[in-house]
Design goal:
Number of strands: 12
Number of helices: 19
Distance between the termini: 43 Å
Shape: globular
Helix content: 40-55%
Radius of gyration: 23 Å
Structural class: alpha/beta
Length: about 475
Amino acid sequence: MVRTQLQRARAGETTPAMKRVAERENRDPEFVREQVAEGQAVIPANRVHSALDPMVIGREFATKVNANIGNSEETSDPREELRKLHTAVHYGADTVMDLSTGEDLDAIREANVARSPVPIGTVPIYEAVKRAGEPAAITRELLLEVIEKQARQGVDYMTIHAGVLMEHLPLTDGRKTGIVSRGGSILAQWMEENAMQNPLYTEFEAICRMFAEHDVTFSLGDGLRPGCLADASDEAQFAELDTLGELTRTAWDHGVQVMVEGPGHVPMDEIAANVERQREVCDGAPFYVLGPLVTDVAPGYDHVTSAIGATEAGRAGAAMLCYVTPKEHLGLPEEADVREGLAAYRIAAHAADVANDLPGARDWDDALSEARYEFDWRRQFDLALDPERARESHDQSLPGDNYKEARFCSMCGAEFCSMRIDQDARAVDGEMTAIDGGTDLDSSRAGDANLPPTGSHDTSRVPDEIEIDGVRFTPVSSADD
């Protein structure tokens, strides 16, 4: 049997994926191999995902961002899902999770894998419920069948909620929001109605063997994550985490890569402690966190409340941040929401990398600051995390090309622009020293994730056109391409 990335790293082999990761991270390939071998980093790369541009998730590398997309029972359009995928990749998602629960699940999943240069993740329990009709009707055989099929289709990582055990369920009594994870609630209902232990836990070694065959990475799900600040860091959450530590070591024994999912809704002052606890319990396996949201009072703005927590989590050592869109808790995200969520989380990830003094991470900030002081508007736009948004915001009030040469914007105007005043003062009296400048991004030590532009994945292996179940999928583009 062909070995996994983890097994090959342990054997001292530097794989092509590791070499590509080293190039993208601007790091030594041997360092990448060592991190993978030790389980401190993962390279989600299913063997049949031919369009993939390999990437790495680990706290010693640039903080990554995942974007969730997917249909629901209310909406089902494979082409719309491909548009969301394109938007996510264009605006800098490092991975994409297909959380579809509606119709056409196989067509959507296969189209996403075929057209995605970034790793694709799924939550197979969703399809199992869809096929069984209700949670209680799921069988172990059906679960394993769904997982194996998705592995064959090329899914790079799967959320497996194997840490939710029967003995944990009473610990959720008294919570304000109970069990908020879809996978966690499905499995809790299954265990209650069948009076049996979580089948994902009892069949975990069988799942490990499937994952090893296809080189699928575990994303061990946090089915008992807190859904509000009041439930954060409680006994149920940490009981599941202890089980995830056990499962991490079991997966490693089978040569399977692992990352561990984390909360959720957590007060600001508890985030670092949550990250450190996961690191200790799970022996340093990469931590993949949703948010966390640091307040519960802002529906419609939860991309902001969660990006605040995500920045702190990244600073504390979380390896990947799962974005939250403005639609969180309110509805199914659309293309515009994907863009907003990714902007918030790319900012959070980059801010964390700057705070952690990742090699070269601040060079991007310095280059943009120099362009700003020099009133080089076009370079400012080019260096912006979202160039289109920056240009639109400037041109809304000063649209003419002549204003691209102006030494002011519409906020202060010419008379009160502080940078213009400062420049004039330096030029007149000669006593104020010159401003430092000249950051060269071409020679920066930063990896791709901390350099412009976002969405710089290699798409050369993405096919122009694909056919699935007799349906032809042609190239898609976001609305602003």
